[in-house]
Write a structure and sequence with these properties.
Order of helices and strands: HHHHEEEEEHEHEEHEEEHEHEEHEHEHH
Low-confidence stretches: 1-27
Strand content: 15-25%
Structural class: alpha/beta
Distance between the termini: 39 Å
Number of domains: 2
CATH class of the largest domain: Alpha Beta
């Protein structure tokens, strides 16, 4: 991993260029404006460097994540556990010194998993390790036992002309590792629409290869949705090794039969909510910079990398700023989104509840990609590029001109014109743990968390003290 958080030589050059000249010097307006801008950039950079150093010496983000995952544990959206997490977040935000701490409630459709078992009954009887996908319907009480039809990927299922009536469709398809998780979207499509695609051909149920990159015998859960006017059939994910085993049996030319039982329930309307706290700005308190993570998690692990780390990084960054005694000009708003895992429902609720003041949101980002330090700064605008370059130089990271949602929950407000950036974390191994029972606190490295916390603190400080609105002229 490249060394990060070294103050680049470009910063020294800015400091030299910002020397104050005597009042008797004659300067044209353009030169004076340029010097003023460089003075402001230099001051922000010096203060951001101070915050970086403080975060690297501390454990603010790491400690907050430890507290959440230990004291609350798993936090499935719409459950009593997510409600306890909201109470925890309110108390933690107040403890670290945030102001205007509140919950903005909304309602979601509730769902909870029940029993989930599966076994090959022929030709080689053995158990399979599976998990229900979020919002799947249940099997009949006594389960389903049927012949399995193998599809190497989703496309082969979509293109089939076979009648699958009464059968179980098995959709494989491997996910490849990448620092930016680029293959997650394509690989995850079978999870999201596989049940409806199989139901169109008459299938009774679906098993998929887990959407993950590990070789452990842990299944990966995740949400799915049913297409309207298509029969709802149960769907579950099996672990990678179990999917390999199934494929080896098919390679022998055998006919495979599986019995599976799933007993999830839709629990009706349930409360969720976004927890918000602020460092109120001194000069323009109505202007908002968002740093965030999501509070809910799947219920198999304790939601450490997804997304306890994001809560720790964003709230930890705010704690670093508060402990420094520095006061931002704009308001830094920390958001712990609810119900992200089941459809970005917290992000959409925030968009709707703040539709009248989104024009005052000058920047937004979210940490929702684990706990490994960032390797790039993503930003796609010309306005404010100087700020982003200062940030990138401070972190010794490349500034990449790349469109970004800013994070999953930020996407809904980005679509309404709110400027976004992303501290792109290295997710090469993220999908080894994502949505599995293995997503636990012991996987988080305190040094990596400190680097993330430092990056978020610096980003929040620079943008909260900028004169830029980060909107290109064509967007204003």
């Amino acid at each position: 991993m490249r060394q990060i958080f070294i103050l680049a030589s470009a910063l020294s050059m800015m400091a030299c260029s910002a020397q104050t000249e005597s009042p008797s010097d004659t300067k044209n307006t353009t030169d004076a404006s340029q010097e003023t801008r460089m003075d402001v950039l230099d001051l922000k950079a010096q203060q951001a460097k101070q915050l970086i150093d403080a975060a690297l010496r501390g454990t603010q983000g790491y400690d907050i994540t430890e507290s959440l995952t230990t004291e609350v544990g798993q936090r499935l959206a719409g459950t009593e556990a997510e409600a306890r997490a909201r109470d925890w977040a309110v108390a933690k935000f107040k403890e670290i010194g945030l102001e205007n701490v509140r919950v903005e409630p909304f309602i979601i459709p509730g769902w909870e998993r029940g029993i989930e078992t599966a076994a090959i009954t022929a030709p080689f009887p053995q158990d399979l390790i599976i998990t229900s996908l979020g919002y799947s319907v249940a099997t009949p009480e006594n389960g389903i036992e049927a012949e399995v039809v193998y599809f190497p990927d989703l496309e082969s299922l979509q293109n089939t002309t076979d009648d699958l009536s009464g059968k179980i469709a098995f959709i494989s398809g491997r996910m490849e590792k990448a620092p930016d998780g680029a293959s997650y979207g394509p690989a995850g499509l079978k999870r999201r629409i596989g049940a409806s695609e199989a139901a169109k051909h008459g299938a009774a149920a679906v098993l998929i290869r887990s959407v993950g990159t590990d070789s452990h015998r842990f299944p990966h859960t995740g949400s799915m949705r049913y297409a309207p006017d298509v029969t709802k059939i149960p769907i579950a994910a099996m672990s990678g090794p179990d999917a390999d085993q199934m494929e080896r049996i098919f390679e022998r030319g055998e006919t495979v039969r599986v019995k599976m039982t799933l007993t999830p329930i839709n629990t009706g309307d349930r409360p969720s909510g976004n927890v918000i706290g602020e460092i109120v700005g001194t000069d323009a308190p109505e202007e908002i910079v968002i740093i965030s993570g999501h509070l809910d998690s799947w219920d198999l692990g304790t939601g450490a990398i997804d997304d306890g780390a994001g809560i720790g990084i964003s709230a930890g960054a705010a704690k670093v700023i508060l402990e420094s005694g520095l006061k931002p000009k704009r308001t830094i708003r920390v958001i712990a989104y609810g119900a992200e895992e089941v459809g970005l429902l917290g992000g959409y609720a925030y968009r709707d509840q703040h539709k009248d003041d989104l024009g005052d949101h000058v920047m937004a980002t979210e940490s929702d990609f684990g706990a490994v330090a960032p390797y790039e700064v993503h930003y796609n605008h010309e306005e404010g590029r100087e700020d982003m370059q200062v940030l990138a130089d401070l972190l010794n990271l490349p500034l990449v001109k790349k469109d970004t949602s800013g994070g999953p929950d930020i996407g809904p407000i980005k679509a309404k014109g709110v400027p976004t950036m992303r501290l792109q974390q290295d997710g090469t191994d993220y999908f080894d743990l994502h949505h599995t029972p293995d997503d636990t606190f012991d996987k988080i490295d305190p040094d990596e968390m400190a680097k993330n916390t430092a990056a978020f603190a610096a980003m929040a400080w620079i943008t909260a003290n900028s004169t830029s609105n980060y909107r290109d002229n064509k967007e204003n």
